[in-house]
Design brief:
Layout (H helix, E strand, L loop, with lengths): L3 E3 H5 L3 H12 L3 E5 L5 H15 L3 H5 L11 E3 L16 E5 L24 H28 L17 E7 L13 E4 L5 E6 L5 E4 L5 E3 L7 E5 L1 H6 L9 E3 L6 E8 L18 H12 L8
Helix pairs in contact: 2-5, 3-5
The protein binds 2-oxoglutaric acid and fe (ii) ion.
Length: 301
């Protein structure tokens, strides 16, 4: 039901692979991909780097706490994101890194291009920045395969990712706390906000994808395989053809690390369907969703 696809075959336009991707994008809304430019070793290194950071004492993590800033760079403590207003804030911790525009860039004052915050350890910045750059490349390739797969005009996406609001996140799910009740989740049910999410995990289970008829499908992938899914902007942009499917992590006995890259267009791209006459700027949609879900940005525009 959730296909496993060869990224190299997608990149050269292999027909059956593109067809399977198109069916996944317009159907279940999830797939897994392997054979990308990011090896299992690179993913393992990123996971290890995040794991070491999340295991630091709170006081050290607080030095890069995003709650002290007006943007979303650095560490998000447990309870600092609430993706579902019906649920309690998530008990996961996370660390966000964004796209850096060159000094003087006209979009430089936007929150989405805020300077990154880095922990003291220079290895963290080295490993995570390199992972970021390659993940953006992988996501770019996959998105053009998706355009091909659904028969969209490739020109529709061309130029839309010049300064991508691409956010790389390390998610840290500790073992599910014993106080956790029915409204407590590692990450509560949500759809992703942007175009494409490229998700690496440490291989442990936890992610569940909502079935259209009800119920949940567990999805896991070892380091080196990526889970991909599609967000609200791509659903809107494609007139509802591509599906943004709700998903969640309840959490279990073991800690878990996952690394989503949320791949989004440049701030000022209109993601309304072609010839619809509507306007929805990518940046405006993302601002609205950030202000709903990051607790420290709630009510702040
Ligand atoms: O940890 C996972 O497997 C999923 C994370 C997720 O859905 C998210 O960060 O948006
Ligand atoms: Fe998600």
């Amino acid at each position: 039901m959730i296909p496993r696809l060869d990224a190299a075959a997608l990149a050269v336009g292999d027909g059956p692979s593109l067809a399977a991707l198109g069916a996944a994008a317009t159907g279940v809304g999830f797939a897994t991909v392997f054979n990308t430019a990011l090896s299992a070793e690179r993913v393992d290194a990123a996971i290890g780097t995040y794991r070491a950071f999340f295991h630091l004492p709170e006081a050290e993590k607080r030095v890069v706490d995003m709650a002290r800033t007006g943007s979303n760079r650095g560490w998000g403590a447990a309870g600092s994101e609430q993706v579902d207003p019906e649920a309690n804030p998530d008990y996961k911790q996370f660390f966000d890194v964004g796209y850096q525009v060159p000094a003087g860039h006209p979009l430089g004052d936007k929150r989405f291009y805020a300077p990154n915050l880095w922990p003291d350890d220079p290895e963290f910045k080295r490993v995570i920045s390199a992972y970021y750059d390659d993940a953006v490349e992988v996501a770019t390739g996959l998105l053009s395969a998706i355009a091909k797969a659904i028969g969209a005009d490739a020109a529709h996406f061309d130029g839309a990712f010049e300064a991508p609001m691409a956010l790389l996140r390390g998610n840290f799910y500790p073992a599910r706390p014993d106080w956790a009740g029915a409204k407590d989740f590692g990450i509560a049910t949500h759809t992703d906000y942007g175009c494409l999410t490229l998700l690496a995990t440490d291989g442990s289970p936890g992610l569940e994808v909502r079935k259209r008829g009800g119920g949940w499908i567990p999805v896991s992938a070892p380091p080196g395989d990526f889970i991909i899914n599609f967000g609200e902007m791509l659903e809107f942009w494609t007139g509802g053809r591509v599906k943004a499917t709700p998903h969640r992590v309840v959490g279990g006995l073991d800690e878990r690390i996952s690394i989503p890259l949320f791949f989004n267009p440049s701030y000022d791209v209109n993601v309304a369907p072609e010839r619809s006459g509507q306007v929805m700027l990518a940046g405006d949609h993302l601002s609205a969703r950030f202000e709903e879900t990051y607790v420290h940005l709630q009510g702040k525009s």
